[in-house]
Amino acid sequence: xxxxxxxxxxxxxxxxxxxxxxxxxxxxxxxxxxxxxxxxxxxxxxxxxxxxxxxxxxxxxxxxxxxxxxxxxxxxxxxxxxxxxxxxxxxxxxxxxxxxxxxxxxxxxxxxxxxxxxxxxxxxxxxxxxxxxxxxxxxxxxxxxxxxxxxxxxxxxxxxxxxxxxxxxxxxxxxxxxxxxxxxxxxxxxxxxxxxxxxxxxxxxxxxxxxxxxxxxxxxxxxxxxxxxxxxxxxxxxxxxxxxxxxxxxxxxxxxxxxxxxxxxxxxxxxxxxxxxxxxxxxxxxxxxxxxxxxxxxxxx
Amino acid sequence: xxxxxxxxxxxxxxxxxxxxxxxxxxxxxxxxxxxxxxxxxxxxxxxxxxxxxxxxxxxxxxxxxxxxxxxxxxxxxxxxxxxxxxxxxxxxxxxxxxxxxxxxxxxxxxxxxxxxxxxxxxxxxxxxxxxxxxxxxxxxxxxxxxxxxxxxxxxxxxxxxxxxxxxxxxxxxxxxxxxxxxxxxxxxxxxxxxxxxxxxxxxxxxxxxxxxxxxxxxxxxxxxxxxxxxxxxxxxxxxxxxxxxxxxxxxxxxxxxxxxxxxxxxxxxxxxxxxxxxxxxxxxxxxxxxxxxxxxxxxxxxxxxxxxxxxxxxxxxxxxxxxxxxxxxxxxxxxxxxxxxxxxxxxxxxxxxxxxxxxxxxxxxxxxxxxxxxxxxxxxxxxxxxxxxxxxxxxxxxxxxxxxxxxxxxxxxxxxxxxx
Lengths: 301, 420
Hints:
The complex is a heterodimer of chains A (301) and B (420).
Chain A: H1 3-10, H2 14-45, H3 63-70, H4 72-105, H5 110-122, H6 125-136, H7 142-149, H8 163-191, H9 195-203, H10 208-219, H11 221-236, H12 240-246, H13 255-265, H14 269-298
Chain B: H1 2-29, E1 32-37, H2 45-55, E2 58-63, H3 66-79, E3 86-90, H4 94-100, H5 112-116, E4 125-126, E5 129-130, E6 133-136, E7 140-145, H6 146-151, H7 161-173, E8 181-182, H8 189-201, H9 221-234, H10 247-255, E9 261-266, H11 269-273, E10 285-288, E11 299-300, E12 304-307, H12 315-325, H13 328-338, H14 345-353, H15 360-367, E13 370-371, H16 382-397, H17 403-418
Parallel strand pairs in B: 1-2, 1-3, 8-9, 11-13
Antiparallel strand pairs in B: 3-12, 4-5, 6-12, 7-9, 7-10
Helix pairs in contact in B: 8-9, 8-16, 16-17
GO cellular component, one term (chain A): plasma membrane
Transmembrane segments (chain A): 21-44, 82-103, 112-135, 166-190, 211-236, 269-292
Protein name (chain A): ABC transporter, permease protein
């Protein structure tokens, strides 16, 4: 059978084309109505003054964006969010990769280990944060008791009184919840690597590190890029953990908390929209930068 | 085959959209009215059954957290849809809701005699329009653990900030409790309101008539109030964990006997603290007039009310419900079952005369000394201002800002919030 005849057989008939379009129409409608139209409306509205406490909705151009640049609360929230992103992406990627490599080696009971691993990811973020709120509690929290038990501290600590410690602890809660997703993505990528490649490399005298660098890493590049993107996007959108563990405190306020406060507490909707647009663009840009880098540095030509 | 299934599914799709439209028809027939209230406004079944039998109105209740209600009201009103027929209206939202014209004036919905019996109704007036009718009478009193004071050899409750510090030190010195003063210092509204209260205690106001900050100078009441809080924290009279505790969490410390003074105590909480099923110190709870440096025990009122959004579907049902809820017998039942201190002065007096109002004489006396936080009415920029207050206070408590820096930061934020 020639390639041309195969192509002829696979060519859809006119009726099937319409049927195919009809099947994808719902998702096109859902994406357009729930994602693209609201996104465009948000960008558009951020150029107006939408404030229910003041009459009219005049066009203000980039004024909301200009005001954001000088807002000290936004600067605090931006810095905090960048710290969250760096910590979350690094810890989730390294921890997720380590967990995936370990699980990939396990031959018996992997499904049980996997079930245990995904448990934090299955928990609603609010429940997750509440559990950690108890762990970090300065009066009866497990963390204080544990550290006192092993002699690292002599008296209870109020963990959120220190800016840097607070950022780290909130990041850890987020990492604890999101690491399983990274591990699963990378485990799937690892399992797709043919075992023959490692055997051939061993015959050629390659050690474990060289195998990891020359075979594993390039072949999981796609999975790595996906996990890095999702880690970045979720870290940029961090809300529940910071809100539940430390409320609106400037020490740990994230960009999305600032969006919530601007739009829904101060009722300055277009100001909040402008900030959410900037947060989205930043999140996309950061994701794109290292996704492209990972692809460029690890792909096989 | 596939095409047939697809066509059948598409044909059924419009029907699924039609189903919910049948619900309002059934609701209207039964005179159902939707209410959106926080947990302490959510009536028990006994009360809702009685409402139905007395008025023919059936409640469809949505219970949300206090701050989530603001989010729901704001998003619904912006979208032009009703959040419910009756919703919670907190005193702090009055400026925003009034400016946005989101609520129906209720001046004619409630009779004048009833309104005259509810002094806190003035908190909900905007340009002569009554935006909402108060149902929970929140003002602040000093609540203390009489047993702790007795064991420390203290005969009477403190009346000045200095006395409070001295009493707290005496209690701490005798190891009765490690942190005698319960006061929130987290970046939450409860911490900000405690500072507003203490500003009154120190005999001042937050702003003058022109909304110029009055708390920046070191001898101002606001400055001294914040310095007092930070000093009490430094002296170990307030738990260091208070930097992460909300007001309700601080109240738990008092209930467990871990604190001797609930400095910014909710008047309605005297009943909750005195209930053995809810408090471990029930038999030792007492209330006193708020501290003062001027001889007059001023306090602030933070009442909660119910209003009818302009977009409400069943406005008549909502009016019926509100009028029913503020009847004396229902305010009494709401106090007994939900801890909402009645907003009607006559009901407070009746409860006190029947011996059913805990620390009734103090509550009644303090009720006459309630000041609004803003004499001009709650400004539209209040949420932004109060968020700045709680953040700066929290930073000062953590030692990241001095009191001078914190009040300067608040003043700067207030100026920014006021800008058009």
